[in-house]
Amino acid sequence: MTKRLLAIGILAGLAIQNSTAANGFTVLRVSTPLIASASAGLKLGAPNGDMRPSMQAEAGIGGGRIALGLDNTGEANFGYAFKAAILRTWIEPLSVDENQTFLGIELELSVKQLVLSAGGYHRVGEGDDDWLGSVGLGLIF
Q1: Do 20 and 49 meet the contact criterion of CB atoms below 8 Å apart?
Q2: How far is CA 5 from CA 56, 90, 112, in A?
Q3: Class of residue 78 by CB neighbours under 10 A (exposed 0-12, middle 13-18, buried 19+)
């Protein structure tokens, strides 16, 4: 399911990028449960400091995440983002078992290129952990 969502997100991003202004971004982050991760994303519309629709795919040691939301992080001295996300754990995630899927929301705050994130997730399907909290610190490029 996660691979299908990633493929749909990439295809949607390519289609939208060809039809309107869009800007790519990259985030390197340390967080729970993903440990160390890198993400690539796309913000739609012209950069003018306002919240813009965005999509983001992230992969790390402890799992991966696909997020959709509104974002203006990294564009000015201060920015923020609200995102809905699906998170899948693998290998050695922090504070949760591997091979579980979670749906949740994330809040990101940025000061220049420094990004702070916090989120809450609920498990989907079978697994041992019903709820998952996530916090992270990263750099946006």
Answers
A1: no
A2: 11, 17, 30
A3: exposed
34 - beta bridge partners?
none
> 50 has which bridge partners?
none
What is the domain range of residue 45?
Answer: 2-140
> What pTM, to 2 d.p., does this model score?
0.82
Rounded to 5°, angle at Cα 30 from 60 and 66: 45
Cβ density class 81-91: b for 16+ within 10 Å, e for less: bebebbbbbbe
Q: pLDDT tens for residues 97-140?
A: 899 999 999 999 999 999 999 999 999 987 777 999 999 999 99
Which tokens is 98 given?
A: 């591997």
Tokens 């290998």, located at residue: 91
Q: CA 71, 26, 37, 117: dihedral to nearest 10 degrees? A: -20
Cα(128)–Cα(108) distance, rounded to whole angstroms?
A: 27
Q: How many domains, the chain?
A: 1
